[in-house]
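Why does this matter for the project? Reviewers at the last site visit asked to see concrete outputs rather than summary tables. In response, this paragraph embeds two records directly. Each consists of the residue sequence and, immediately after it, the corresponding structure tokens. Nothing has been edited or filtered.
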Amino acid sequence: MKEMNKTELKKMEDNVLEFKNKLEKFHLDINSENPMQIILKGNLYIEYALRERLKKHLKNPEILECDKLAFNQLAKLVFSLGLLPLDIFETVMEVNHIRNSYSHNLKYNFNEEEYRKLENTFSPDFKNIYLSFLRTHKYPINTLIKLQTAIFTIWQLIINRYNVIENFNENM
């Protein structure tokens, strides 16, 4: 493994600070007693992270007009290109399905049964990461905390975990 120079260390420090700021804003935005706000804001964060991941891997992203892609198109494109592992695809799509339920059904109510449908999409690897985040919460853990943690886990995996792995591989 090569040693890092001052410029590379500074860049890494800047990246850590940027992630810390994103993390604080994310928590402020989804820290709510209202599941609709958690879902709508969380889905926006996930969509933005998917869009940024796609743009990062395209030579000419302006040709594709990534900002005009619908969520379903965007997610299918990102996952079909292998930019993220397939084991979180179904979970990402289920969060968007819940978001659409809120957007198109005035009487939609997110509850424990709806949460279980989301949880049933968790792959074993995703569930392990999710549970490690969930263990950091104080009891009692209710459906809203589980929902916030699931959305945080998805977002964190998209913007952080896979970026760290890619950056590590590039520096080897």
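We now turn to the second protein, recorded in exactly the same manner.
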Amino acid sequence: MTTKEDRKPAIERALILSGGGARGAYHVGVIRYLNEIGWKPDLVCGTSIGAVNAVAYGTGVSTEQMAELWYTYDRKTLKQFSIKGIINSLKKSQRYAPPADTRRIRAILEKHIDIDALRKSTTRILITALNMKTGQIRYFTNKVIDIPHIMAATAIPMVFPWQHIDGVPHWDAGLMVNTPLTPALAWKAKEILVVLNSPAGIFDVKEPKKQAHVFELTVEHVLIGSFMAQLPDTAWQNTPEADVFETPPYQSPRLNLALGGSTLRVVAPPKMLGLASMFNYSRKQAETLINEGYVNAKMQLKSSF
């Protein structure tokens, strides 16, 4: 007789890839280092651009091939939109029309994503999308992921057209779960590696002085919010009489205790990348971020796994 325990996925190692637009090239450098040291995840879960990289990983493409895609397709190829188009779409009297045309993105995915290989992947792949009608976060496995699911996972609200899955509109879940940590925690992965695209929440950042820096930090905190909110914490039970509660700091004894035997490590850029980096799909930035991802992973994980 099959029990619930038997049906639970055997997840020893989990890789979590955050959203962040063009910053997603950073993931490639981290994965390159993980391949080099032989750290192979049983689960890869991604949101937004993290979903694309997760799916690519699931198809078995090499990091060299992943890097080449980042080098080949620039912003003009990937994202045809303008700030003016976004502003115009907000006019109350105007029927909504997405300011971006994503047909080229679909064509690129159809050309380079081998769905058959993804279905056969021995690594469990999960990507997120947000049900627009109910506000529910949905996780799709490699057994059902198809091109429309990937398009939905990367459909940035107010910029890209949403996608219908089973007749229901979905878009990018980065609004709610930019770092999809929950599956790794729920399946009690022993080693969890989270790749962030910002230092916020992991490294101290400077108090902003300029308006642009205030706006940048606001966006970064919105993006890191889901990660911080998903961190387990026993302080509520252990010290209910406390007057101040806060999320446990990364690598703190309190967090390690709450993880209950799991190890959580994070690779993140040590300094702010600037908001423009999220939309900069140039080869120059891709090369820089891939290199930084590799170097940061090597430095930040050298005594972890």
